[in-house]
Amino acid sequence: MKKPKVLTLSEEQLVAYNNRDIDAFCACYHEEVKVLDEEGKVTMDGMETFRQRYASLFENFETEAWITERLLLPPHIVEKERYVRKNLETGEETTGDIIVRYTERDGKIALVAFLR
Asked: pLDDT tens-digit profile of 54-79?
């Protein structure tokens, strides 16, 4: 059975996130990507904003995340992620859990919804 595209994209973007590879990370996302907060408010709209936000994150923090739970219903995937971020300037670490929904369209992740 062929692996669903949204699952492949989720795995690829997580590897790129952990490697702080902005080009590989953005390659998983649609040019018209939208990111929503827990209330459904759009916090990022389009690749330019998305790339800028994550480039800044990758430049200023060591990042690591891993999946602790996953639900798959293509073209959607919902994941509970555990993350650690270390500020490169101060050394301060932040850890937490987040639930993320990714929706695939046209072979890329087009919608991201963060639940905190």
From this structure: 999 999 999 999 999 999 999 999 99
pTM here is 0.95
SS (H, E, C) the chain: CCCCHHHHHHHHHHHHHHHCCHHHHHHCEEEEEEEECCCCCEEEECHHHHHHHHHHHHHHEEEEEEEEEEEEECCEEEEEEEEEEEECCCCCEEEEEEEEEEEEECCEEEEEEEEC
What sign results for the dihedral spanned by CA atoms 36, 109, 20, 65?
positive
CATH number at residue 96: 3.10.450.50
Q: What percent of the chain has pLDDT over 90?
A: 99
Residue-range definition of the domain harbouring residue 101: 5-115
Among 61, 23, 44, which Cα is nearest to 111's? 44
For residues 86-90, average pLDDT = 97
Number of separate domains in the chain:
1
